[in-house]
């Protein structure tokens, strides 16, 4: 894959703006000059032909989506717990991979409670919901082999 002489170069197209509902950034591959599939006449006068290709990712897309949804849920819950906007939430880091490394739900709950020590609202429902959501998730720091 590192040999750029035989493989096309990858070009990243600009990502759609936030809230556009688009699927995200797209990657196009630029075919080397004279490669098949450049059109009926061979080489194009307009420059290289861009064809959309699939990108091999390190992590399972479904797992990344679950993680993103979890992070959005955590932010939403923290804004309710601290009764403030997202930018005003006290600096704390709930590391999901760290929680997944722990042996039991009791240890996970104790760690989250420790992180939320400055919160004056009840945190039990948040902690219970968080533990339910991370149950069955996989760590992202160690990618799966296919």
Automatic annotation (TrEMBL):
Annotated region described as Disordered, given as residue ranges: 1-54
Coiled-coil region list: 61-102
Entry's Gene Ontology cellular component terms: cytoplasm
Key word NAD present: no
GO function terms (MF aspect): protein serine/threonine phosphatase inhibitor activity
BP GO annotations: innate immune response
Pfam families: PP1_inhibitor
Keyword terms, alphabetized: Acetylation, Coiled coil, Cytoplasm, Phosphoprotein, Protein phosphatase inhibitor
Keyword Ribonucleoprotein included in the entry's annotation: no
Main location: cytoplasm
Entry similarity comment: Belongs to the PP1 inhibitor family.
Function summary: Inhibitor of PPP1CA.
Protein name: Protein phosphatase 1 regulatory subunit 14
Source organism of this protein record: Aotus nancymaae (Ma's night monkey)
Organism lineage: Eukaryota, Metazoa, Chordata, Craniata, Vertebrata
